[in-house]
TrEMBL record:
UniProt xrefs under SUPFAM superfamilies: Chemotaxis receptor methyltransferase CheR, N-terminal domain, S-adenosyl-L-methionine-dependent methyltransferases
Domain CheR-type methyltransferase: 1-279
Enzyme Commission numbers on file: 2.1.1.80
Reactions catalysed according to its record: L-glutamyl-[protein] + S-adenosyl-L-methionine = [protein]-L-glutamate 5-O-methyl ester + S-adenosyl-L-homocysteine
InterPro entries, alphabetized: Bact_Chemotaxis_MeTrfase, Chemotaxis_MeTrfase_CheR, CheR_C, CheR_MeTrfase, CheR_N, CheR_N_sf, SAM-dependent_MTases_sf
Protein known as: protein-glutamate O-methyltransferase
Keyword Methyltransferase: yes
Length: 279
């Protein structure tokens, strides 16, 4: 059973329109493999039948979340691209406090495309360290973490990880912010309660016209996400981010992403770090 080119075209067009994700013909085998589980779960006899179901009223209502989970990539790690966290604490936060953007110590950070939670919980650890080192600032971080996939959001909310996942976490941070299972034969850890309470999770599709965020953000992390979009979609998304970013706020992208040549209202201030003008 294989994915017919006609069905692939229908699916790739739909995925681009609904999720903004490029799906060239070279990814036919990948898409075929990822949807095979859905065919089995739905007891369908082929990808053509899957398309018929997906594009029906019932399918659009019930299957969209499963399609999203199947096609989105959720590669993430704790303390990924550590230079960003150094820049955040040594440059961005002091600058935000100096210009008064972080109002009365309230610091709002959005982890956009948070996957299974490693990035927002890394931010919680980093900001806890910063707050401990600078108690006079009265910093009150609020981390919003969003993703399109309900599956990874469920993992993130549980905040439980296999010990293999925490290798990048510095030993001192492990001792302070990770709780080991009481069962010595169960190799899992959980993020400490204080750091969990710093993060709120929600589902968000970058293709939505309005994101529905109630407050402007001081900092947005959207790393290794826009690489899956074409240039037009990247520009449109970054402009939407800027609408949710306070003047003087910062946007962090992934190490392989660039806004060079894009018509967007931010200025590069460090490798893959951008800032919205104050006026």
């Amino acid at each position: 059973m294989s994915l017919h080119p006609k069905d692939f075209q229908r699916l790739s067009r739909f995925i681009y329109e609904e999720l903004g994700i490029k799906m060239p013909a070279s990814k036919t085998t990948m898409l075929e493999g990822r949807l095979a589980k859905r065919l089995r779960a739905l007891k369908l006899d082929g990808y053509g039948a899957y398309c018929d179901y997906l594009f029906s009223d019932q399918g659009r209502e019930n299957e969209m979340v499963h399609l999203t989970n199947a096609v989105t990539t959720n590669k993430t790690d704790f303390f990924r691209e550590p230079n960003h966290f150094t820049y955040l604490t040594q440059t961005a936060i002091p600058e935000l406090l100096k210009i008064g953007t972080a109002e009365r110590g309230k610091l709002k950070i959005w982890s956009a495309g948070c996957s299974s939670g490693e990035e927002p919980y890394t931010l919680a650890m980093v900001l806890s360290e910063f707050r401990e080192q600078h108690p006079q600032l009265g910093l009150r971080p609020q981390i919003l973490a969003t993703d399109i996939s309900n599956r990874v959001l469920d993992i993130a909310r549980r905040a439980v990880y296999h010990q293999d996942r925490i290798t990048p976490v510095p030993p001192a941070a492990r001792r302070k912010y990770l709780l080991k299972s009481k069962d010595r034969d169960n190799p899992i850890v959980r993020i400490a309660p204080e750091q969990r309470t710093m993060v709120s999770f929600g589902r968000l599709n970058f293709m939505d016209e309005e994101f529905g965020l109630r407050e402007l953000q001081d900092v947005i992390f959207c790393r290794n996400v826009i690489i899956y979009f074409d240039r037009e979609t990247q520009e449109r998304l970054v402009r939407k981010f800027c609408r949710h970013l306070l003047p003087g706020g910062y946007l962090f992208l992934g190490h392989s992403e660039s806004l060079h040549g894009c018509d967007v209202p931010v200025t590069q201030v460090a490798p893959t770090v951008y800032r919205k003008p104050r006026s």
